[in-house]
Amino acid sequence: MAFTPVKDKYRSKVGEVTLGATREQGGTRAYTITVGGEATLPFLHFEGEIPNRPVVALEVWDVAPADWNPCFEPFYGDVYNNPAAWAKKCVEEFGADLVVLRLRGADPDVKDASPEDCAKVVKDVLAAVGCPLVVLGCGKAEKDNQIMPAVAEAAAGENLLLGVAEQENYKSLTAACMVHKHNIIAQSPIDINICKQLNILITEMNLPPNRIVIDPTIAALGYGLEYGYSIMERARNGALGGDSMLAMPMIGNVGYEVWRVKEANASAAEYPGWGEQEARGILWEATTAMALLQAGMDIVVMRHPKAAGLIKQNIDELMVKTSYEG
Amino acid sequence: MFIIGERINGMFKDIAQAIREQDPRAVQEWARRQEAAGARYLDINTGPAAKDPVKVMRWLVEVTQEASDLPLALDSTNYDAIEAGLEVCKRPAMINSVPAEWPKMERVFGMAQKYNSAVIGLAMNEQGIPKDADTRVALAMELVACADSYGIPMEDLYIDPLVLPCNVGQDHGPEVMVTLRQIKLLADPPPRTVVGLSNISQGTKNRELINRIFAAMAVANGLDAAIADACDDHLVEAIATARIIMNLDIYCDSYVDVYRKQQK
């Protein structure tokens, strides 16, 4: 007797967001990337369409990171002080689909880079790579509200993804995205209710839902991964069930979170039973990312090139269509 | 639970006048208002006084569709009038309604199949409205079986357990609640449920209060749809809140607005 898979029917699907703009579209990108559009739960190809594969981004900073593990030296050491060259390396050597530029140097406690400096770094990176670009502020709301409008203006037409908007600070970034036609990252602190409310607040300012990407906030394996996972699950089930205020693609800063934890950084000398540090860190990052792909993450922001490579391979395998018919 | 807006009905004076004078303004105004308020379907009823219900139904469908893109629920006991409406509906409609009686079920489910419509099936037959839940459920089962034999998917069958005014048939209230739950056990996937909400308060003094408390209780018992006054803000707020409490929608501070917007 033939096996008939049980298929769920969903009322709706995840919206699509397109990042970047080619010359014909008013930008200078070599290609655009579209994420989202899932009509079923992650990778259930037999049940519904998954028109766009999840993408892998690598993280670039505008200043040399003082606290990154030494294992990154051989990969990025020569370009730590040159964000444009760093971005180029991520794309050309390490195969990143897109680049996330974190303007860490704008932090008053780091370099206090001016809005003009930040805009220049963004322009330099755009000139160096052809991929769509994500730009994150320094994380301090007051300063980010100064630099992000300048970045948005300098890169008008490039259809960037800018972050982050939070419930307590979303107006300035939303306005900048409206005026200069960029997309926005709506970040909520592992809280489905705030996630939904923030999307409502942003759309009430007339930024359309197809220009919002959800950052649900995730944590590394062993540090509350399952909380982020279950929020993402609820958001995705909500999206498929017709909740349009949760029907956006999702982004997660996997590399950033994983490389803060002891299990990724501690040396083998310190914990002999844990094995070699770099291999362990790579696996910690890749494992965290793999789990979050299963919860519906669309843009995975990685740090270690080898972990990124593993995840790209994992996505290739997951995107092979499964079929129970014939 | 969503609302089927009840206002385009020849029982209301302004609609009756619109029909009489062939002036679509009142109909279209109510189509727009109910849509803005969050109705997901618009009920279309020619009213008892229409001399030529077939012609009136077609006209009402046509002028309503000029003002709103919502799907329509064609409400009549005259199946020729319903068919005339279905012929001109731009989107799959809902037939309101059919009792568990032959040959009415044949005619209605046949039309539903032909026009790809949903159907409201009434848990009653020639003997009238049952007194208890068990008889209602038995009649619901007849509707399920008949719909299934015509290939109507269960998500397009809305069973109405039939609500009586609480000052007339007070003992029916708990039976309706039990029926709402048991209908969900009749098939997998289960049929949907619907009530004519305002019936519960016919002839009472606190109509709006009774309507919205009943709505919240019915949501708690799994009700899927109600033919109701979409422009009653307190009713919509009560339904949206009941859905939050029943974990049917994900909470956020603006959940009432979200409920209204998502009906479209």
Explain what you see.
- The complex is a heterodimer of chains A (326) and B (264).
- The two termini of chain A are 12 Å apart.
- Chain A is built from 11 helices and 10 strands.
- Chain A has one domain: Dihydropteroate synthase-like (TIM Barrel, Alpha-Beta Barrel).
- With 326 residues, chain A is an alpha/beta fold.
- Chain B contains 10 helices and 8 strands.
- The two termini of chain B are 13 Å apart.
- The chains are: A alpha/beta (326), B alpha/beta (264).
- At the A-B interface, helix 6 of A face helix 10 of B.
List the defining traits of the structure above.
heterodimer, A: 326 residues, alpha/beta, TIM Barrel, eight-stranded parallel sheet, two-stranded antiparallel ribbon, 11 helices, 14% strand, B: 264 residues, 10 helices, globular
Q: Name the chain pair whose interface involves the most residues.
A: A-B, 15 and 11 residues
Q: What is the CA-atom radius of gyration of chain A, in angstroms?
A: 19 Å
Structural class of the helices, strands and pairings of chain A? alpha/beta
Strand order within the widest sheet of chain A? 8-7-6-5-4-3-10-9
Number of helices of chain B: 10
What top-tier CATH class of chain B fits best? Alpha Beta
Morphology of chain B: globular
Text of the CATH class of chain A: Alpha Beta
Backbone shape of chain A: globular
CATH architecture of chain A: Alpha-Beta Barrel
Structural class estimated from helices and strands of chain B: alpha/beta
Q: Any low-confidence stretches of chain A, pLDDT <50, length ≥5? A: none
Poorly predicted runs of 5 or more residues of chain B: none
Question: What is the straight-line distance between the termini of chain A?
Answer: 12 Å
> Please, how many helices of chain A?
11
Radius of gyration of chain B: 17 Å
Mean pLDDT of chain B: 96
